[in-house]
Specification:
Helices cover 39% and strands 21% of the residues. The protein is an alpha/beta fold. 54% of the residues are buried. α2 packs antiparallel against α4, α2 crosses α6 and α9 packs across α10. It is built from 15 helices and 21 strands. It has a seven-stranded mixed beta sheet, sandwiched between helices. Strands 9-8-7-10-11 form a five-stranded parallel beta sheet, sandwiched between helices. Strands 5-6-21 form a three-stranded antiparallel beta sheet. It folds into two domains: 272 residues, Aldehyde Dehydrogenase, Chain A, domain 1, CATH 3.40.605.10; 185 residues, Aldehyde Dehydrogenase, Chain A, domain 2 (3-Layer(aba) Sandwich).
């Protein structure tokens, strides 16, 4: 692993922060291993990046969309040619298993290919006018300078699904990655630079949310903000922009407290596998992970027993090792957060079924490893049933009917994903109709999304405005102009 110093990219040049200050990141599986040194940027660095994006915007806007697409196709090819290196970087930086990292990097490749193709399909419409001798049509235009702020849990996929449509639509970008995972983000930006993206169209600035993120959230030269992260930060961005003189377009994807319901007619072995993978895969560090399983009371005991066996058999360790099935928490703070919530649940009266501790494996002592954990006898008023934990901690709730299960599923301030395990078509369709979530999974993992369909949550999981991914992504990154031509 290269342990060198990495710079910001502003106006096509790799530069150090104005203050000269830096910060280091370390491998969460082997905390003594340094990953690299990055710029501890401030407001001045963010302003320079915004100015560079503003200056580059007109030329990029006027570049024919198919020409923009060629650059994105080339970037996809560069990423794919470096898939092995990028995957190892992602595992060493964020902690997920190598197989999970390869899947995420390949998704990034596929996203850029998809939106490269969309460059030839960013179309308006023609309309029949009520007036004679009138040509009436609409066109889509880029919105301007876009600020992208992304989380650490999918540090190449989420930047890609924001960046690719933003660039395809002709916008210029200022990108602030999460401070826990700036290296894989730097390599993504480098791939676009190598692909021939003009200077200033994409700018990369590392640093704290309190300075860099604050400047991107408040600067009047920013035309749109796309943010994925916590509800508190997202709400703060929304509030600031609503009260500013220039109300930039805002897209927010925030937390989740995702349920999976298991009904008596479900295949229990299959259901247990779906729930366990949804809860413990990616170390539970996914906004779409299952954190609540709502089980019909007739089968609760059997399902919990099967889940416990799967949790106990999960191999926890360094994601680079081939036998590893679950990697570490991303940081000491996240590990402690997981352990604190487990203790909160036990103090509230939940029953610890399995796990609940830092991994006791001798090979894991230099990392932030938490055991896959199941808490049973959880009531809907407990904190562990309501608050997002973002770790491998699964709460088990009971319901006496499918109707009660849906009611419990909806008893949350969040509404991102929701799952159901059943063999009954009527139950499946009723669930899809009544559950309050943006993504519905029936007999499928709650994690995992296809890139060509819209994604976004309900309630406090999002700003309830624009969807991400698929053709619908262009709705956020473009504005529509209607043109009347008399002749």
């Amino acid at each position: 692993m290269n342990q060198g110093e990495y710079c910001n990219l502003i106006s096509g040049k790799w530069v150090k922060s104005e203050s000269g200050k830096t910060f280091q990141i370390h491998n969460p599986a082997r905390t003594s291993e340094s990953i690299g040194t990055f710029q501890l940027s401030g407001r001045d660095d963010a302003r320079k990046a915004i100015d560079a994006a503003r200056e580059a915007f007109p030329k990029w806007r006027n570049t024919p969309a198919p020409e923009r697409g060629k650059i994105l196709f080339k970037a996809a090819a560069i990423l794919e040619s470096n898939l092995e290196d990028l995957s190892r970087t992602l595992t060493q930086e964020e902690g997920k298993t190598l197989a999970e990292s390869k899947g995420e990097v390949q998704r990034s490749v596929d996203i850029f290919r998809f939106f490269a193709g969309q460059c030839s399909r960013i179309n308006g419409k023609t309309f029949s006018s009520a007036s004679k001798k009138t040509l009436l049509y609409s066109v889509r235009e880029p919105i301007g300078v876009v600020a992208l702020m992304t989380p650490w849990n999918f540090p190449i996929a989420i930047p890609s699904w924001k960046m690719a449509p933003a660039l395809a639509c002709g916008n210029s970008v200022v990108f602030k990655p999460a401070s826990l995972t700036p290296l894989i983000a730097q390599k993504l930006v480098s791939a676009l630079e190598q692909a021939g993206l003009p200077a200033g169209v994409l700018n990369y600035v590392t640093g704290p949310g309190g300075t860099v993120g604050e400047e991107l959230s408040t600067n009047s030269e920013i035309d749109a903000i796309s943010f994925t992260g916590s509800y508190d930060v997202g709400y703060g961005i929304q509030k600031v922009r609503a009260n500013s003189k220039k109300m930039a377009r805002v897209q927010l994807e925030m937390g989740g407290k995702n349920p999976t319901i298991v009904l008596p007619d479900a295949n229990l072995d299959e259901a247990a596998s779906i729930v366990a993978k949804s809860a413990f895969g990616l170390t539970g560090q996914a906004c779409t992970a299952t954190s609540r399983v709502i089980v019909h009371e007739r089968i609760r005991e059997k399902l919990v027993e099967k889940l416990a066996l799967l949790a106990k058999s999960t191999v926890v360790g360094d994601g680079l090792l081939p036998e590893t099935q679950m990697g570490p928490a991303v940081s000491e703070g996240q590990m402690q957060n997981d352990l604190n919530y487990i203790e909160v649940g036990r103090n509230e009266g939940a029953k610890l079924v399995v796990g609940g501790n830092k991994s006791s494996n001798a090979d894991n002592q230099d990392g932030y490893f938490v055991e896959p954990t199941i808490l049973d006898a959880v009531s809907p008023d407990m904190r562990i049933a309501k608050e997002e934990i973002f770790g491998p901690v699964l709460s088990v709730l009971s319901a006496s009917s499918a109707e009660e299960a849906i009611e419990l599923a909806n008893k949350s301030e969040y509404g991102l994903t929701a799952g159901l395990c059943t063999s009954n078509l009527s139950s499946a369709l009723e669930f899809a109709d009544k559950v309050e979530a943006g993504v519905i999974k029936i007999n499928k993992l709650t994690t995992g999304l296809e890139l060509h369909v819209p994604f976004g949550g309900f309630k406090s999981s999002s700003s309830n405005t624009f969807k991400e991914q698929g053709e619908e992504a262009a709705d956020f990154y473009t504005r529509i102009k209607t043109v009347y031509v008399g002749y």
